[in-house]
Specification:
Blueprint lengths: L7 H10 L18 H21 L3 H20 L10 H16 L2 E9 L1 H18 L5 H15 L6 E3 L4 E3 L6 E3 L1 E3 L2 E3 L2 E2 L7 H16 L13 E4 L19 E5 L3 E6 L5 E14 L5 H15 L9
Parallel strand pairs: 4-8, 8-9
Antiparallel strand pairs: 1-11, 2-3, 4-7, 5-6, 9-11, 10-11
Keywords: Acyltransferase, Lipoyl, Transferase
Enzyme class: transferase
EC number: 2.3.1.12
């Protein structure tokens, strides 16, 4: 019997999922060709079979413990539900006021770009331990992203400007103060890295870490949360792929960073390859920023993150 043909992307997916293509005897494509959907379906079937075997394996205490824990958790959650009233905290009230202020004063639009961060992933993996040993700073992906955005902001200064309604002017800053949204127990806070364009990668990472810790420990100063030029919010840290971030008015734009995920992509030669992919969203005020300018800005950020070796040079 002649083996069915396999599409290139199906081969790539099979390699990624560890599927033996010889076990798939017939595909759903033309002339029984095996497609990526066939590979995914076969992989899911294998996983389902594996789960069944695990459930019946001679270690019932593991399964029982998991089941009991799950049941107990659901039961406890149900039993603690109750009608109650909670006073709005001053921080939450301030957040609400800022959100409404932004909604009422901004003509919103958002652009999303998909970025191949495979090189960045590998570069960070290669240097993270040495940098931490040498400087005591743990490099996450955020400082790289912040550095790329800072470079792009210098090239597209309108993205870091503010609107002065009283004077009816657009105000361009002499320095870049970068806001970093931080998730805390008391609510969202946005510490500001002052003169961020002057900092090296490790200095930027250290300052972001210091400010985030101060925000979470409630020791941050009011002055450390003022006079931002542009804000980054990293909802990828909780697994979100993309969003439409809210501008920290009177700033004119904000960047939202999604989670890094594994994808199968085509390179410039049309070849299929596995990649680390991340989405970045730019929300901007359409009254003062044209879509084309925001598009060029986010394209520049993409270019820099896909060539991370230049981030320490520019």
């Amino acid at each position: 019997m002649t083996k069915p043909l396999v599409t290139p992307i199906a081969r790539a997916v099979a390699k990624r999922l560890g599927v033996d293509l010889n076990l798939i005897t017939q595909g759903s494509g033309p002339n029984n060709r095996i497609t990526k959907d066939d590979v995914i379906a076969f992989s899911q079937k294998q996983m389902s079979s594996s789960t069944t075997v695990t459930t019946q394996a001679p270690t019932p205490e593991v399964v029982t413990t998991t089941t009991a824990t799950t049941t107990s958790t659901v039961s406890n959650q149900s039993s603690t539900l109750e009608t109650k009233r909670v006073k709005i905290t001053p921080i939450r009230k301030a957040i609400a006021k800022a959100m409404i202020n932004s909604r009422d004063n901004v003509a919103y639009f958002s652009l999303v770009n998909e970025i191949d961060v495979t090189k960045l992933w590998n570069l960070r993996k290669e240097i993270v331990e040495d940098v931490q040993k040498t400087t005591g700073v743990k490099l996450t992906f955020l400082p790289f992203i912040a550095k790329a955005i800072l470079i792009a902001l210098k090239e597209f200064p309108i993205m870091a400007a503010k609107y002065d309604e009283a004077a009816n002017e657009i105000v361009y800053p002499a320095t870049l103060n970068l806001g970093i949204a931080v998730d805390t127990e008391t609510g969202l806070m946005v510490p500001v890295v002052k003169d961020a364009q002057t900092l090296s990668m490790t200095a930027l990472a250290a300052e972001i870490s210091r400010l985030a810790l101060a925000a979470r420990n409630k020791t941050i100063k009011v002055t450390e949360m003022q006079n931002g030029s542009f804000t980054i919010t990293n909802y990828g840290s909780v697994g979100a792929l993309f969003g439409t971030p809210v501008i920290n008015y009177p700033e004119l734009a904000i960047a939202g960073v999604g989670a890094i995920v594994d994808r199968v992509v085509f390179n410039k030669q049309g070849e299929v390859k596995p990649a680390k992919v991340m989405n970045i969203t730019i929300s901007a005020d359409h009254r003062w920023i044209d879509g084309a300018d925001a598009g060029r800005f986010i394209a520049r950020v993409k270019e820099l993150l896909e060539k991370p070796e230049v981030l320490g040079v520019l």
